[in-house]
Design a protein that fits this description.
There is one protein chain. Helix 4 runs antiparallel to helix 5. The strands form 2 sheets. Strands 2-8-7-4-5-3 form a 6-stranded mixed β-sheet, sandwiched between helices. It is globular. It contains 9 helices and 8 strands. The longest helix has 19 residues. It has 2 domains: 34 residues, no CATH class; 188 residues, Glutaredoxin, CATH 3.40.30. The protein is of the alpha+beta class and 242 residues long.
């Protein structure tokens, strides 16, 4: 029996709007024959292709930097499903895989600005905290306070973390990390990623362990149960050890 799978990710309105617009145009060109029109619409929809490799970017890393397996996370600070992953699943992955040195966890920003207008500035806030070696502390605090990510609240989070608030505010007002975040968005979009959270499990090239790209092993879309990540990571670790 078919069962509807619960949605576990946030998705930008832009791809959906573009698809609706394209379908309306096809309907206008082909007339009112619904069966024929739907056939052409189905044929016009491109089949998503999984990238064979993907860049890590200049991104924060947790774990052993020499690990041969990477869990790359494209995330949005305002996305509730991203928050669920950070609060409920990431602690298990961190304990079982990151702290043990089996993998490294790489975080890249993918704020969905069309539905989450506060996410981009929150991403900048985390990077500004990183200048004072508090990226992950700010990252966690932002996900713990997803309902209060307004510009006025960010300095209070910086203060609570013991940061130099003036330095933090100056960084935040400068937009100095805007282009870097845009690069994350561009790389995600080029890889066919449309929603968050979106995870790429990849393998590092043995011959070039410092390369800034990884070979894609598996992709996990949405905040899935821990067992889904465990199975994928165990498979990648086994492949990397061969």
């Amino acid at each position: 029996m078919f069962r509807h799978q619960a949605v576990r990710n946030c998705q930008s309105r832009q791809p959906r709007r573009a698809l609706k617009k394209r379908n309306r145009n096809i309907h206008r060109r082909l007339g009112k024959n619904e069966e024929t029109t739907n056939h052409f619409i189905a044929a016009a929809v491109p089949t998503p292709t999984r990238p064979t490799s993907i860049a890590l970017g200049d991104s924060p890393v947790r774990g052993d930097k020499n690990a041969l397996v990477v869990l790359l996370d494209f995330s949005d600070y305002q996305c509730p499903f991203c928050g669920r992953f950070v609060r409920e699943t990431m602690p298990l992955i961190d304990h079982d895989y990151v702290q043990s040195g089996k993998i490294k966890y790489v975080f890249r920003d993918f704020p969905l600005e069309s539905i989450h207008p506060l996410a981009f500035k929150a991403a900048e806030a985390a990077r500004c905290a990183g200048e004072q070696n508090r990226f992950w502390e700010m990252h966690d605090r932002l996900y713990q306070n997803q309902n209060t990510l307004d510009l006025g609240s960010l300095p209070f989070y910086a203060q609570a973390l013991g940061l130099n608030v003036d330095q933090f505010a100056q960084c935040l007002n400068s937009d100095k990390y805007s282009s870097s975040i845009r690069t994350d968005i561009s790389d995600a979009t080029s890889a066919g990623i449309q929603g968050t959270p979106n995870f790429v499990i990849g393998l590092v090239d043995h011959k070039n362990p410092n390369a800034q790209t990884i070979r894609v092993w598996q992709q996990i879309v949405g905040a899935q149960p821990y067992a889904s990540y465990k199975a994928a990571l165990d498979s990648a670790i086994a492949a990397a050890s061969k």
